[in-house]
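We close this part of the discussion by returning to an individual protein. In the encoding step, the backbone of a single protein was reduced to a row of integers, each denoting a local shape. The sequence in question and its structure tokens are set out directly beneath this paragraph.
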Amino acid sequence: MKNSFTGGLKREIALPAAIVLVIANMIGTGVFTSSGFILGEVGSPQALLACWVIGGLFALAGALCYGELGAMLPHAGGEYIYLRRSFGALPGFVSGWISLIVGFSAPIAAASIAFATYLLGGGDEPLFVIDLFDFRLLGISPVSVLAIAAIVTFSLVHYHSLHLGQRVQNFLTAFKIAFILLFVVAGFGLGQGDPSRLALLSAGEGDAMPWGDFAVALIFVSFAYSGWNATAYLGGEIKNPERTLPLALLIGTAIVTLLYMLLNLLYLYALPPERMTGLLEVGLGAATALFGKGIGSFFGMAIAFGLLSVVSAMIMTGSRVYYAMARDGLFFSTFGQVDAVHHTPAYSIFFQAAIAIVMVLTAAFEVLLVYIGFTLSLSAMLTVLGLMRLRLKEPDLPRPYRTFGYPFTPLLFIAGNLWVVVFTISSRPLVGAAGVLTIGIGVALYFLLNKQSDDSVASCCQAGEL
């Protein structure tokens, strides 16, 4: 039987498509679901907006750093490639493992759940449930069924071809950006909001900043901003990556930061803080308050459709990490194969989909958000530390782009993420333990796979001697 898989991804992604990919990965679940949780943590609208501003600055600092890494090492795999070069195979493998579980599969699950929740108007009566004591082992509901359907559909789209995946991605992202701009303009221009709430933002409350709670709230924000490094994972498929990759990271992140600020100002214009606090469907709540229930439901459906862009973009980018690991012999070789007809990493795409589906059936949404943000902060912090190590370790390595503001930019990023990680461990020890456990499993898996590889080589050698 002829093998339908071959090596080599094609460089087909130009600058506009790369910017679209960054925007598509970033704008989604977080900004439409987390502002209510953030307000519950920090307690005031001023602190809420400050949280989004600081999160945007962290994301821009990270994009500046990843721009240098991406231009220097323009290959598929993102953080896995960068950490393998700066710290060695083990950290590289663990970052790839984190990407598989936390960086992509979990956000795909979260985005698909948010999509289904918005589309169905929040109703989610369970159809089948398995509980162990107070812990949900498995739950099937209309939301989970629709979420799984979205994951399967977009996995098939991105399996078909990069060209089709890009076209679908570009359309969904264009719709999402146009909708957000329409939402903001119509909300402020025609919506029934309260301008006095915005006027109070400049007055200040005189209260001390709750730094511990603020740091934890940044976990939700970091989840909302995650995706600013999206094009780094497709370095092997980007045209002229030395120029395109850093530009896409910077332009995409700046656009998203501006849109996030506008959306949060609109939320505060539409809803009083007490109604917004703890609200999951904050976008739908704001739309209903601004335009009434009928038009608000329409906006809720539009938000749901826009969230499909996140599902699509995460499926597209995440699969390239496991592909790169397998090509380097650090993961199961099956996932390093590319379909000869479709030129896509098919096995990686479907493996990722299977993990995301399991998370849809088992995970709680809010816990999932904190777990994602915490673990990704650890990985991104180590990656930027690796940038500084490469400056010392390989000073003569070609660097078509150098990080603006170095070394202050990477130090700011590292310090900010370290602050978030420390306060999260102290206030959410179980979530922190889950993140550390995920890393520990990755380390164990690395040694297990390498032991099997060594045993296989030894067996071959013995057979040759006989």
In short: Confidence is low (pLDDT under 50) at residues 1-7, 456-466. Residues 106 and 368 are 7 Å apart (CA to CA). Residues 429-465 form the longest helix (37 residues).
